[in-house]
Amino acid sequence: MPHAAPAARARVLAPGVIACAVVGAAATFLSEHYGAPVMLFALLLGMAMNFLSAEGPCAPGIEFSAKALLRLGIALLGLRITLAQVQALGWGPVLFILGAVALTIACAMLAARLLGFQPLFGLLTGGATAICGASAALALSAALPTHPGKDRATLFTVIGVSALSTLAMVLYPMVVHALGLSDRAAGMFLGGTIHDVAQVVGAGYSISTPAGDTATLVKLLRVATLLPVILFTSLLTRSRQDAAAHGPRPPLLPWFAVAFAVLVAVNSTGWIPRPVQAAGNDLSRWLLVASIAGIGMKTQLRELVAVGLKPVLLMLGETLFLALLTLACLRWLA
């Protein structure tokens, strides 16, 4: 029977996938009722159910959720962006965002090296800070080579960037009011500095509708830089593997990055109906939440506690660098 193998595969994966989906649903419920980032709840709940990833019926499905569902969720992020949104901002903000993302990642890689970490860890944390928080951390982690400490680094980055994004959502509107920024300048600042999309929306519209609209557009432009950063990550990984002269070379662009770019292009044509866009965005969010629950299940809390103070200082420094850089450029932007 031709469908026997896929059916058998589905039966093997089902227990773990269902476990990740249940944790994701619980995390979504808690997020909606208590206002904390859903990714953070998914991580913590997943880590509390770490025993499921040991030998047993759930292990294959958890591994599948942490990898395959993650990549599919990242690809569907392309439904959030159109080229018209980029054009609406004008060249000034576009050039600023490109420069800010590049500078933040470069400084993060340098700082990581000075603190004794691999530069790729700085690329992971800097990309999460500069682009779109937890989603960027997951996307960049998927593009990085397999390493024994990769899941731990990814988990730490997601937790750190989620906590800092929530803190920024509370503090940055106060900074906006203290500096007396206009609605456009406030939107530029909030959209250019806060890590996660949801927190940008919450902070922007807490000031005014024009500020919220501008913040959302600027944030989506930052999300659009995910593709070139993934390409840079793939090129860097390939060059390092060439230098090491062992192991298979990774693809120039992972399939999920190509799918992301294709969806942005198709979405820009206006052919995709709004209900389909909304459904794709919802599915992307669910897949990412389920995948981060799976990553949480694969990691033990003591592994995160062992990272020490230096990674915390690295992520805090990246966040402050991006905020100060944006404030310094606001006069030119607005």
Automatic annotation (TrEMBL):
It is a multi-pass membrane protein. Keywords: Cell membrane, Membrane, Transmembrane, Transmembrane helix. The keyword Transmembrane applies. It holds the Pfam family Cons_hypoth698. Its main location: membrane. InterPro entries: UPF0324_pro. The chain crosses the membrane at residues 12-30, 36-56, 94-114, 121-143, 155-175, 187-208, 220-240, 252-271, 283-301, 313-333. It is found in: Cell membrane. Belongs to the UPF0324 family. This is Sulfate exporter family transporter. It comes from Ramlibacter aquaticus.
